[in-house]
Amino acid sequence: MSHIIPSRDDLTCRLERLCSGEESREQVSAWAMSIIDDDTIRIKDPIVWDVLESLGAVDLPSTDKPYLYDLIDFESWLLKLSQ
């Protein structure tokens, strides 16, 4: 299954939906991983790739807090995408 290459705007939208609770961590992670695992997609924007990889791990638990990434990380990624 081939996906459309996500843009910075696409990732910003996903992050905003995650922050607002419109999408769960599991939904966002599954979406990101489906793109990462699609060998037909070539992402040329390094910022899109970095944030996409982070979104793929957004549902991972941590040893000292509920999740590896939290709202501070999401805000940092949004800032990175806006540059």
Summarize the main sheet.
none
Question: β content, as a range?
Answer: under 5%
* Poorly predicted tracts of residues: none
What does the average pLDDT come to? 94
> How would the global form be characterised?
globular
What is the percent of helical residues?
55-70%
Order of helices and strands: HHHH
How many individual domains? 1
- The first-to-last residue Cα distance is 31 Å
**Whole-angstrom Rg:** 12 Å
SS class: mainly alpha
Number of helices: 4
Name the assembly state. single chain
Strand element count: 0
What do these coordinates show?
It is built from four helices and no strands. It is mostly helical. The chain has one domain. The protein is globular, with a radius of gyration of 12 Å.
Question: What is the element layout, followed by pairings?
Answer:
Blueprint: H1 8-20, H2 25-36, H3 46-56, H4 71-82
Helix pairs in contact: 1-4, 2-3
Provide keyphrases for this structure.
single chain, mainly alpha
Write a compact overview of the structure shown.
58% of the residues lie in helices and 0% in strands. By secondary structure, the protein is mostly helical.
